[in-house]
Amino acid sequence: MNPLLKAAVPPADHLMTTLLRVLHLETNPQDADRIEALLTEEGLSCAIRRVETRRAFISALNDGSVDLILAEFSLPEFDEGGALELARQLAPHAPLIFVTAALSETQCIEQMRRGATDCIHKRTLGRLVPSVRRILREQQARVAQRRAEEALLQSEVQLRQLQKLEVVGRLAGGLAHDFNNLLTVIMGHSQVLLSEMGPDHPLSGRVEEMQKAGNRARVLIRQLLTFSRKQPSGAKVLSLNAALSNVETMLRRLIGADIQLTLRLSVDDLRIKADPALIEQIVMNLVVNARDAMPTGGKLTIETAAADLDHLPKYHVNPIPQGEYARLSVSDTGFGMSSEVQEHIFKPFFTTKEEGKGTGLGLSTVFGIVTEAGGGLDVISEVGVGTRFDVYLPCVVSEIEAPTDESVTLQSVEGHETILLVEDEEDVRILIRDELRKLGYRIIEARNGVEACLVATPHIGRLKLLLTDIVMPGMSGTELARHLRVIKPELKLLFISGYTNDVGIGDGDPASAYLQKPFTPEALASCVRELLDVKPTNRMSADHNRRQLSSHGRSSDPEP
Length: 560
Description:
Shape: elongated
Distance between the termini: 37 Å
Number of helices: 16
Largest sheet: 5 strands, parallel
CATH architecture of the largest domain: 2-Layer Sandwich
CATH superfamily of the largest domain: Histidine kinase-like ATPase, C-terminal domain
Number of strands: 17
CATH topology of the largest domain: Heat Shock Protein 90
Helix content: 40-55%
CATH class of the largest domain: Alpha Beta
């Protein structure tokens, strides 16, 4: 229940579905029995609690388990209207009906003006059941209205959250494009320096640190894009145990010497289908969270196990069928979390850390990755004892996909073909131009699509490859490719982009490829050579390529 609505919701909203809890203030047992028999005979399922004294009446009201109050008006311990006043103070949600022989019509009107729901004379008890039924219908309507209001409020909260995520997503997409361009230059030139320096150069260590920093920046961008749902999945079948073994050394450096890390990997072959980088991100985020919960040291345990899931994890989005799952558990001996904190841990931007020490995106990113993979999470935590996160990911029976070997030799990627390079970021264009020229390629360069059309015309006969950014002012890379393919259908296409939503352009076309920024000079050289070595396709394939490019046509400017 939303805490903002807690004070407005009565203790019971189960009316007409369970026993009607009636508090009956009556000193005459015969009258009490008559009223109980009447309610029962008319099919009203009641649990009646009869009290006779002021003290017992107050105690029953304080219990909070009252749906309806029936009261005699004239009682020794109560002033005129005293029962009504107490009921309004202690159980304002419960309607009160005076069932009495002591009230005149004028007095009844006065008591109803003061808050009584109805006044029924004991000589006309036949009016009691219709009055009770009317009260129940009114309360049902109020409960339904409250539920609708609560649902509306929850929807508004979710809408605001989605709007916030959309803003973050747009910001993330724009930042990713700019940072990926910068990282392409930084990581590209640092790799060039390393190749020219050799391992014994006194500055090679510093250049390696530059590369490591670039890789960390790439991971941070990926985390932000994953959180905002702007990162396409590179899912593949992998071994969960192998993925953890690969990052063990990095995790030990990450947590420091004062935290004891224990890795317990299952003997079972736990195969899952997921993006390896995102699995690494899940582990990293959970480990960092555990580390921060143990500032003075402690024990951190990472376990994997096969789990025949027979329950629904507490934290999930889509329906999770029962079956075989891989369980990844990360537990610590840190501060632990209260139940109140646990209710919010997966909400974006929620953090209990000091200002400047936490973004509030770590656990929400974990939640997003896990639920996107069809899994769920359980959390067990106790203040002063520690916390355990259980991540459930569905197992698969497919063969593990071997990692691609990106290492290439200079001899295998050299060439002498003519390449049209189109890139509006000058630093990126210069890096690509210089590296490809080193390999023997002839490079014709342009800053945008319009300029590319002009400079390409004299060289169209010997032009073998268009290497173009996708999002550029004036004319996009896909539009440029479409124009040049009309003139030269066999032209090979290599698209590059810092926008992750461009992934997939060129799919199905053997004469085109896509390279996501940031990339290394080796990856670029390998991709260029592989594409140029593709055998020419027939005219039908070229027509298919033009149609496929047309389907990807879009504005040259990113979405606002």
